[in-house]
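[recover] target loaded
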């Protein structure tokens, strides 16, 4: 498949039953979907199952793609919904939110820079975030998505994403300053 073919063209070809187009779309987006699902779940087998289910849903519903969002956002929205369904079935919903009454004791820039250099600590701090915060951080900083795109993927208002990222940053800074 030609690497210059747009995602939108691939989706229309997938809708027509083109298996080569589905393979190309899978190769372009499965890893992104996997990293997104991993930001919510830790079990690699569950992650692989959800990515597989997501891509099957892409195959089944490609004809319904209207182009109102990017193909990547559409696929990540499907992955998000599959992940939420899995979490609900597993009854492992984490409804915890940060305590907003805790005073802001943000560390100075030197402390943050020293902590950032220690990638193991950063990974550990990110893993300690709630699934919603971890997902927002992953999409914003590792997938370089805009708040609007993240809101679309997460199915929440853009303001909610801004709030999640704001609180996630505070929690990360607090964790990294320890």
């Amino acid at each position: 498949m030609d690497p210059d073919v747009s995602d939108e063209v691939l989706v229309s070809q997938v809708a027509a039953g083109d298996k080569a187009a589905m393979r190309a779309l899978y190769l372009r987006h499965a890893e992104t979907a996997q990293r997104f699902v991993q930001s919510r779940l830790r079990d690699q087998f569950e992650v692989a199952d959800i990515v597989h289910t997501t891509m099957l849903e892409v195959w089944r519903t490609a004809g319904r793609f209207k182009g109102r969002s990017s193909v990547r956002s559409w696929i990540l929205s499907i992955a998000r919904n599959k992940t939420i369904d899995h979490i609900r079935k597993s009854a492992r919903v984490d409804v915890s939110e940060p305590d907003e009454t805790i005073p802001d004791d943000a560390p100075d820039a030197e402390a943050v820079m020293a902590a950032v250099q220690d990638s193991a600590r950063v990974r550990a701090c990110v893993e300690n975030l709630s699934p919603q915060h971890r997902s927002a951080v992953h999409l914003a900083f590792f997938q370089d998505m805009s708040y609007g795109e993240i809101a679309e993927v997460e199915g929440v208002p853009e303001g909610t994403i801004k709030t999640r990222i704001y609180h996630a940053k505070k929690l990360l800074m607090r964790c990294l300053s320890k």
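[recover] notes: The mean pLDDT is 84.
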